[in-house]
Amino acid sequence: MNEVTESGEETPDETNTANAAGEEASQVESDGEHASPLPEVEQAVHAVRGSLITLGFVNFDAGHVENATTGALVAEERRHRFRRDVYVGIRDTEQRKEFLGRIVEGPFHSPHEISADSAMSRVTVLHPERTHFRPSYYVHGTVEVLGEILDGGAVVPTPTRPRPYSEIYIFPADRLREMLGITGTFYIGHLMGYESVAVHAEVGSKNFLPRNLGIFGTVGAGKSNTTQVVVEEALDAGWAVAVVDVEGEYVRMEEPTADPHLRTILEQRYGIQPAGITDLRVYVPASGTSDAASPIRFKVPIAEVDPEVISSILEFSEPQSRMFDRAIAAARAAGRQQAGAQGSGRLGVLGQAQGRQQGARPFNLQTLIDGLLTDQAGRCQLLGQLQSPEAVAAHFLRNKLIGLGRSGVLDWNATSAVPELPVDQLLVGGRLSVLDVSETPDRSRNIAISYLLGALFERVIETDVGARMPNGQIRPRVLMVIEEVHTFVSRQSASKMRAVLDQLQIISRRGRKRWMGLALVSQQPAHVPDELFELANTRFIHQLKSSTNLAPVKQTTGGVHDALWGTVPSLGPGQCLLTGAIFRNPMFIQVRPARSRRLLIN
Asked: CA-CA distance, 124 to 144, in Å (whole number)?
């Protein structure tokens, strides 16, 4: 079970301890007379500085030095405050600058009186009960400089670094939300170690959802909970959300969460009441089953799917691919002729046929299967007389199409009474549409995903957000979630799946401008092609213990300090590294529990 638990981190001590380097609220003039009181604003500034907790001071540079980091020295009496992931301010009086930083390495410990590698220091540590002398020690570590703090409170990139002796103080938690750019209405969770600092995103920014999400993590790390939270928040913001559910986890989200532990955390820590989704529809292929209360059966019209995508997914050989293209062209021409050339075969922007009504399809899967049946003389209904090698290709192609039909996803005789997936009904603001394909073979499922992607994209392209679609509905912003995306297109099959990758890249590039976003979810990032990583600008990176899975995520995620990657394998349930264009800096967060129910998958 993917479960969100408490982070276990302590909130930094922020009591009103006087700052040792603070300035007085009044000053004495050179002639010995008291000056007039400082202006009210300056008094407030000095009062704030006087309440900050000094942590340590910037050290001299030694050894390997980076532009974005600085060393910190912390005295013995303050060492208990030095922890990783604590945000700090750095006051550089020499340059008259103030910086925002984060502790990324340490605490490391060094003795005062003797060398750390001396024989005496080793004896005191190995046999503390035999020695009367125990050296005192100080703490040191590394601070990542996140930027320079301007007078107005904004954090901007800096061309310099703090000088030695600059004071390092624990940054006030109540100022972090503004500094880190984590304000908005899309409620994600809170900063790790800072339960009072909520993490939000601005759902109305094109730098967030329409720039696509990547959600990565091993089993039990909280990946599915994060997906559920994203879905809930998008629905609250009026987005239409479609989820391709490969495990049948999200089919009961109309119910509030049933986990008593999560309910307690939701109510007591986050102030949120458990609640189900008010508008949920679950669709299941004709031959599948679902744990949903009222699943809706559906099928996909093969005439609406790009033939190149089908060839890629079914891994046709070159002769089979050529044969399939000829069969499609012949079936389409025959269908148009039979329909009186009513325009049912118009091609959309992704290359597949466009026809909104089920009865308008020029052909179906059964048409292809029947049309490729060859007689003893080598003739078939669709293509006429075939040479011997062509007849062999037609035979194997037909068998593959029959196997595709048995999945119950496509339109053939066995599914004649099943309606097509009603794409327009998925485009309703605040509605969650779940495609439960947990019992569907991968290839058939992937064809359904490709169809849905293309069909949603066609609607998005032809109608602006807020305008009325041809069916009279208002077009909402759209988010499509693809669970276990590496089973849709993998690194190993990328070279053979160019049509699928091209489809995703077109939708990502053109859909972003039109408020259509993708959420790509995977527990095996090592199997995800580099092309898909490039699509995911905002990333929720949960625990990844395997270096094989961590490496591609690290290589394709920019702006993250190397020291932070060392924490990813040890993250707890629900904790993740969050990075994206809408956030000023990567950060570790604790994702809130989902309000709605998710079925447990054993």
From this structure: 33
Q: What is the structure's pLDDT at 49?
A: 52
What count of other Cβ atoms lies within 10 Å of the Cβ of residue 130? Answer: 8
- Of 593, 597, 601, 598, the C-alpha closest to 267 is 593
145 phi, psi to nearest 5 deg: -85, 110
CA dist 501 and 497 (Å) reads 6
Helix (H) or strand (E) holding 424: helix 423-426
b/e per residue, 363-375, with b = 16+ CB within 10 A? bbbbbbbbbbebe
Type of residue found at 231: V
pLDDT digits (tens, 9 = 90+) for 566-592: 999 999 999 999 999 999 899 999 999
Instruction: Retrieve residue 177's tokens.
Output: 């939300």
Rounded distance, CA 213 to CA 171, Å? Answer: 30
Q: Which residue has the tokens 């447990």?
A: 600
CATH topology of domain 206-299+420-538: Rossmann fold (3.40.50)
Tokens of 469: 């679609």
In percent, how much of the chain has pLDDT > 70? 88
- Average pLDDT over the chain, rounded to whole? 87
415 and 404 in contact (C-beta within 8 Å)? no
State the pLDDT at residue 127.
87
Exposed/middle/buried for 569, CB within 10 Å: 0-12, 13-18, 19+?
Answer: middle
Neighbour tally for 62: CB within 10 Å: 7
Closest CA to 469 of 240, 274, 308: 240
DSSP character at residue 253:
T
Helix (H, G, I), strand (E, B) or coil at 435: strand
**What is the percent of the chain with per-residue pLDDT over 90, rounded to a whole number?**
74
Q: Confirm if 580 and 559 have CB atoms less than 8 A apart.
A: no
SS3 196: strand
User: Which comes out higher in pLDDT, residue 63 or 376?
Assistant: 376
Match domain 53-171 to its CATH number in 2.60.120, 2.30.30, 2.40.30, 1.10.10.
Answer: 2.40.30
Give the C-alpha separation, 500 to 310, whole Å. 9
CA-angle at 307, arms to 304 and 311, nearest 5°: 135
Q: Which 8-state DSSP code applies to residue 77? A: G
Do 245 and 566 touch, CB atoms closer than 8 A? no
What is the amino acid identity at position 300? V
Residue 135 predicted with pLDDT over 90: no
Angle at 88 between CA 82 and CA 93, to 5 degrees: 115
The domain spans of the chain are 53-171, 206-299+420-538, 304-406
Phi and psi at residue 20, to the nearest 5°? -60, -30
**pLDDT tens digit string along 481-497?**
999 999 999 998 888 88
d(CA 204, CA 190): 20
Digit-coded pLDDT (tens) for 426-436: 999 999 999 99
Q: Looking at residue 340, what is its pLDDT?
A: 65
